[in-house]
Amino acid sequence: MKYKNIIILTSDLYRGGVSYSSGRLAELLAKKGATVEIVTYENLPIRQNVENVKRVTSLNCPYSRTSHRSKLKQAYVRTFRFPAILLAARRFARFVKSTFPTMGQADKPTVIAFTHAPVAAAVLSRYLFKADFHLIASERQDPKADLKSRALIKILATLYNNVDKVHVNSPGLVERLEQDVGVPRSSIALIPNIVQRATESTLSQTANGLRRAAEEKTINAVVIGRISPQKAIWQAPIILAELKSRGFKVKLTVIGDGDPQPLEDLESSAAEHGIEDNIEIVGSIEDAKSTLHKYNLGLFLTNWESFGNVLGEFLAAGIITVASDTQAGLVNYLEDGIHCIKAPVLERSDSNSAKTLSEVSSRLATIYSDINAANTMRRHAISKMIEFDQNSHALRFIEEIERIGGEK
Questions:
Q1: What is the torsional sign of CA 14, 228, 302, 275?
Q2: 66: pLDDT strictly greater than 80
Q3: If you ran DSSP here, which 8-state letter would residue 319 be given?
């Protein structure tokens, strides 16, 4: 690897898909021989364990409102998150200059920045504070759905015109960036996320769970992940209530915390459909992935997504899964009825939502009533996830790093 100095600039190593993806990439690049520094934008607790990196530093700037429980802290973040970008840019420029005070072209670091505020800070640190580095911006969301404001999308377009490459992890995001942000296709690198293989123990236990669903008509469903505003988990009680009406015993476990509104919508939906006693909200736990063996239905319900690491974990574990058919995400790579059951993206106000979700439940009931069909979907899902291995993920990033370095 010719260009070995890498800085991963990420929102945090606390929780969620960005924390996992940035931490795993840092670890993989380090194993390939790179010298990797991690800089977190916000100073949150580190839950994502990362091996072999040189150090982890924080810019200590506010960013994620839902990562804080205190109302006062949330108000502080909401007030200062945008003004703090300039401070973050200055601090990051100082970090780069002190870490790489003198360097030739081969020593020039490559910064891979995850999420919008770190990307903005990186761009400003180059152009206002004269920090010298190559820059890859990793777009983790559908900009139109995430930012909503036309003014913010125009600012994002300006930022992306001042980076060396924009990384996306699903085909749908390529189209979104081209159409909504004006990023040319030649400036976009499509590299999907990693999906780790499940252990043999997990696969054995989920196979047994699938048999129980078929033989005993018992469904243990799960929602896992950071509860962010786009999560449509209010749909879960509707799906499960319909299955209950078809004679299945149902239980839903919700693992994760975050924005309170989606959880309130979930509880309201459960009460409306009479299954509030069948739902357990356990909050965030340290290693949710280790609990996958307990479940035989994964529910990945969302209005938009960049990839969906949890969806990959469900499928790799051989769990029958319902996935919202978002414009972008891992779902872009999946076939409906082959790897999972795709559910349309729905608003709660949609008058046809109950009918649409009832059809999803009907398809699930058919699968669970035919163990051969269930096992076929399970095998296809496990096999598909093998495509998203960590070695090719790291190598494709290295290719982009080498290409950018060679162009300068």
A1: positive
A2: no
A3: -
Residue 218 belongs to what H/E stretch? strand 218-224
Give the C-alpha separation, 59 to 73, whole Å: 17
Angle between helices 260-272 and 235-245 (to 10 degrees): 20
Distances (CA, A) of 341 to 51, 268, 338, 382: 36, 25, 8, 14
What tokens appear for 67 in the block? 């990562």
pLDDT digits (tens, 9 = 90+) for 350-381: 878 889 999 999 999 999 999 999 999 999 99
Q: Which of 2, 13, 32, 22 is nearest to 392 (CA)?
A: 32
> For residue 135, which phi and psi values (nearest 5 degrees)?
-135, 125
What pTM does this model have? 0.88
Which residue reads 């601090």 in tokens?
Answer: 91
Dig out the tokens for 397 from the structure: 């990033």
Quick check: 367 and 320 in contact, CB under 8 A?
yes
What tokens were used for 63?
């960013």
Q: Is 149 exposed, middle or buried (0-12, 13-18, 19+ CB in 10 A)?
A: exposed
Q: What is the pLDDT of residue 143?
A: 73
Q: Which residues contact 271 (CB under 8 A, 6 or more apart)?
A: none
Burial of 380 (0-12, 13-18, 19+ CB in 10 A): middle
Separation between Cα atoms, residue 70 and residue 76, nearest integer Å: 10
Beta partners for residue 298, in sequence order: 222, 321
pLDDT digits (tens, 9 = 90+) for 160-203: 999 999 999 999 899 889 988 999 999 999 999 999 999 999 99
Contact 192, 330 (CB under 8 A): yes
Q: Output the CA torsion sign for 330, 332, 335, 341.
A: positive
Residue 146: closest CA among 369, 23, 303, 353:
303
Amino acid at 58: S
Length of the chain equals 408
Give the Cα separation of 263 and 20 in Å (integer).
23
Q: Residue 291 and residue 282: Cα distance in Å, rounded?
A: 12
Is residue 261 within 8 Å of residue 231, measured between CB atoms?
A: no
Contact 62, 42 (CB under 8 A): yes
341-343 and 297-300: which strand pairing? unpaired
